[in-house]
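Researcher: Predict the fold of Ribosome production factor 1.
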Amino acid sequence: IMIEKTEPEHVDAPAEFSFPPTFSVSEIKNKQRRHLMFMKLKQEKRKQKVAMKKKKKKERDALGDKAPPKEVPKTIENQRVYDETTVNPEDEEVAFDEGTDEFSAYFNRLTNPKVLITTSDRPRGRTVRFCNQLATVIPDAHVYYRRGLALKKVIPQCIARGFTYLMVINEDRKVPNGMVLCHLPDGPTAHFKVSSVRLRKEMKRRGKDPTEHSPEVILNNFTTRLGHSMGRLFAALFPHDPQFVGRQVATFHNQRDFIFFRFHRYIFKNEQRVGIQELGPRFTLKLRSLQKGTFDSKFGEYEWVLKRHENDVCRRRFNL
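Model: Structure tokens for Ribosome production factor 1 follow.
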């Protein structure tokens, strides 16, 4: 009996690595193998995403002007729940309220801003440096040490000396963590949480120290009645007419109720290109409360207070 030897047939391996539809990496017990399979799965998803982008680009190039508009990615900002207090610039009621509120004297050019910056008792070096750098950002700002005086005693002295703002920087564990901003003489008083403070020496690629020119002020995304009040509160810190020679800009950008502060200088490279360099300091504010009148922690009337967990029901609801 003759037996013929046959060579085994070679089966071509699939060109691309693929997983079964019900595959779960977490089912793999071995840690190293689980990590390897996870990286392969991630690489495969990345390849599929790139291939899909190339395919869509070819289709758009083929259709030309008839191509459908690009899809806008969904974010928390563009999916924001509508707020009934959103300000319409043409609303007569809003215009009347702004003409009679506490900041009307400033916007009617009857007063010039003058700011007193102080701290909590026995401030540490980082808080003191932060106050000194804020004084270089805000024109006509003066830094004084607290020396154990209560704010109720400080406020009458500020009013007698012609100050329009009292700014108090609080600290915890040698780090600035709070700010009380009181508009004088009639209020309101805002209390903020301060985070992500970076002084000038801690910033990379920063520009030279700012000059004494009055900066321009940019207020972004303050759309509700409360946000409009915050915008007017920040705007009244700076003089009416900016000095464009200094090319300095102070920005208060509201995003998801966090107010980001940045201080830049813009540089004209040529007639078409403009560059910016950050001067510092930078920090982030979160509004805790807004109180009518000047600071009064016991008997003060609060217009708005941040309630804990009030945004847990809907993350797309914002106050500013």
